[in-house]
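Course assignment 3, question 2. Fill in each field.
Student: A.L.
Task: Predict the tertiary structure for the chain below.
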Amino acid sequence: MRIVSQKVKLLACCLVAHAMICAPLVAQTSPARAWPHPIQARIKDGTNKDLFVMTLGDVDTPLADGVFDPAADELRLKDGTVIKGYYKDRLRVRYFAPIDKSHFPLPPAGWCSWYYYYQEINETEVRRNAEWIARNLKDYGAQYVQIDDGWQGAGRGQSDNRDWTKVNAARFPSGLDGLAAYIKELGLKPGIWLAPHGQSNEQVVKSHPRVFLLKEDGSSASSTWEGRYLVDPSTPEAREYLKDLFRTLKRWGYEYFKIDGQPIVVREYRTKRAFMKDQTEDPVALYRKTLASIRSAIGPDSYLLGCWGIPLEGIGIMNGSRTGTDIVAAWNGFKYALRATMQYYFLHNIAWYTDPDVFVVRPPLPLEQARAWATLQGLTGQALLTSDRLMDLPEERVELLRRIYPAVDIRPLDLFPAERDKRIFDLKIKHLDRQYDVVGIFNYDEDRPSLVYLNWQELGLPANRPVHIFDFWNREYLGAWEHGMTIELNPASCRVLTLLPDEDRIQLISTSRHITQGWVDLLDQRYDPATHSYSGRSRVIKDDPYELRFVFPRGKNFAIKKAIARTEAGELPVKIDNHQGWATIEFAAPRTTEVRWEVAFEPAEFYRYPVREPSNPWIERVSLDGVDLRWNPPYQGVAGYVVALNGRPLGFTPTNVFTLRNLDPDAAYTAEIRAVWYDGTLSEKGARVEFSLRQLLPQELPLSALTPLRLTSGWQQPERDRTFLGTRLSLDGQSHATGIGMPTDSEIEFGIAGPYTTFSALVGIDDSYRSNDPRSVEFTVSGDGKELWQGVVKKGDRPLPVKVNISGVRRLSLRVRRVGGDGGRVPADWADAKLVR
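Answer field:
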C-alpha cells in the first residue's frame, strides 16, 4: 500500500465524514416482490410499431399479451396458450436463467475513464473524478469508479497493454491497490477493466506452460485483439491462472470487473479447438468454466460485466453485459447505444443487466442531444456509467446527471428484440397509489424536425378521459386532454412527458428529484378530499431544490394556501407557486435526509376566454401514409387545438400543426380543427380541409424520405442520405444528395404500399472506403420476402444501376453483404434510391 499526501488524506476524511452524515438515500421505495416472480409481457408489436414499453413496479396494463414466469421460462398468453422455454428456445438464449438480484438488486451506476482519457489515464485524474463524484453525485446514487484500459503494461498499444501482471507505475505511482483504497475512503467502489483471456508477455506464457493455446512449435495458436496468446480453457492450470489473476485484483480492492473481448474468446475457442490440450469437451462449456473460475475468485459480491458485443454464453455467471459497440462523444454514439437497446433490452433485468455502453453529456455535444442520451439511460434503467471529465461539466450538464442517477428497477414489458429504432419510450410506473406513464419521445434525425402522435389508447390509457400532461425537462404543465396529442420535436432531441389520467380531484403528477418522478424519492403520499390537502414523506438530497407538482381537474382551479416541510431538525423554507390548473411547492434541505410535508389547497377562480376558430387549413405530405395538417392560428389566445378526422376525435396539439399517420392512399378524408381553452371549451366553429393522399404523392419519391419498418445490423446501422461514416454518399467521384448508406451485413425494410411501380438506385462501395481489400459486396432487393434483384460490386467498379418492378409490393427490403471471409464493415451505397409511379 502506497502513502498518499496529507492534503489528499484530509480531503478524503472530510468526505467520509460527510458520507456518514449524509448517506445516499437511493433504495427503491415500493415494497419489492421476491425475484424471480411472474411479470406482464408483450411478445410482439401492437398497432403502433414505434412503441417501446418498460415497467417499474407491479404494473397492470392492457398492452400485455400475457404473463412470463422467469423461474419456469414459461409464457402464458391471455388466450391460454402456454409457450415453454420462451427464452431458451423461442429467443435462443441457450443458458437462460433469471438474473440473481440477491447481491446486486439494482444495475451499477457511476463513472468510467475510457471515453475521455482512453489510454492516457493516470492516477491523478482518477482521483479528481472520484473526489468530484463523492462531493456532487454520490448522494444521487453514483457508486462505481471504473478504471479502463491504460493502467497496465506500457499503457498504450495492443502489443504492450495485454500484460495483466504489470501496473504502469509512471501513471499510477500509488499502485492499483493504493488507488482502490483511496476510492473506498471516499465511500465509492473501485472497478477495473481487463481482457483476461489474452496475454502478450512471452515470459508469462513461458512460465505457465499449460495455460495458453500453443502450436507444436511453441508459437501462439491464437493472436487476436484479445492478446498475442489466449488462455487454453481445457486445462486446470489455465483456470487456476485466471483465479490467481482475479484474486490479486480482488486483493487490491476491486469490486467491479469489466472483462473485454468476450465474443472473440468464444469464437477462438470454437475455431481453435484442435490446439486445446483436452479436446473432449464442448468449447462453449469450457468457456463457461473460465468464467466460473473468475467468479470463484472474485466472489458473489463483486460485479462481473462481459464486454463487448453480446456474450450470451456468459448468462447465469455474469451480472451484466455491455451489449453495444464503443460509443463516440457525438450523436452517432447515442445512436449506437440506441441500437443496442433496441436489439438486446429484452434481456435486461431478466437474464442480466444490459449496458449499452457509457453515456456522455459534455460539450461540444449540444445540450438537447445530451438530454436525449440521458433520457435513454434514465427511462430504461440500464447500467448507468458516464464517461466525462466531470470537473469540467457546466451546471446544465450536471443537472442531467442528477435527474437520472441512480439506475432503478426498470425492466421491459417487450420481451422481444425491436427491429427498428422506436421513437416512443413508454415507462409505466406503479408506485404507492399512483399509476402513471413517463413517456420519452425522440427525433433521431439530425437535420429535420419531426412530429410524433401519442394515441392514449395505443399507450393503454383511457381514450375518452382527460389525461394530464407534464413536461419533465421543461418543468411545465401542458393541460389535460382526451384521445391523444401531437408533439413537435427539434432535430436530434427528445421530450419527456408524464401522463396521468384525471381522477376528478387534485393529483400529484410529478416530483423533480428523478426522471421516474416519485419512485426514488417519494416514501408516502396521502390525499384528504374533505380538506383538499396532501401529506407525505420524501427523500431529498442535500441542497437540491425539491419540487412537488400538483394538477387539478380540468376546468377547476385551486391555490395552495399553506405548505409545510420539516425534518427532524426543524421546518424548512417553502416556496409556493400557484398557476391556473396546477401548483407547486419547493424546498431544500441542508443535508440528505427525509422530509415530511403537508400541502393545503383552497378553491380559486378559473379564468376563461372565448376562443375563436382557426383558419386556412392546409395539408403537407410527409410520407407514403401520412400528412401534416397545418392552419393559421387566430389572433386571440388559445390553449391549443383539437383535431378530428372524418368525425373521429384524435386529440390535442398546443401548436398549429397535427400529424396524421397510417392513412389509406385511396381514401377520402375530411379533417377538422377547433381551438380549445384550458377548461376544454371548444370554439363554436372549426376549420375544415378535404384531401386524398394519392393526389399528394409525387411522381418520384426518395426512399430516404420514408421511416424504416425494420433495421437489422450489427454495431452500426443504415443512414438516410449519408453513409454510416457520416458523410454524403459518393460513388465514383460523384456526390449524391439522397439515398441509403449501409454497412455490410445489414438490412433495411420499408413499407411502400401505394401507387409506386418501380424502384431504382445506383449501387456501389462508397468512395470513403480507402482499403485495398479485394473482397466484394453483394446487394439484394427483396419484396414481401421474395428476392427481386441481386448484384455484386468490388472496390473500384463503376456503380451498378438497379431498376426493379415493385407493383403490388408492400414491404421493400435492401440488404448488403460482404462476400468472402471475415473483416471490417464496408460502406455500401444505394445512391438516388427512389420509388417511381
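Instructor remarks: The first helix runs from residue 6 to 21. Residues 213 and 411 are 40 Å apart (CA to CA).
Grade: pending
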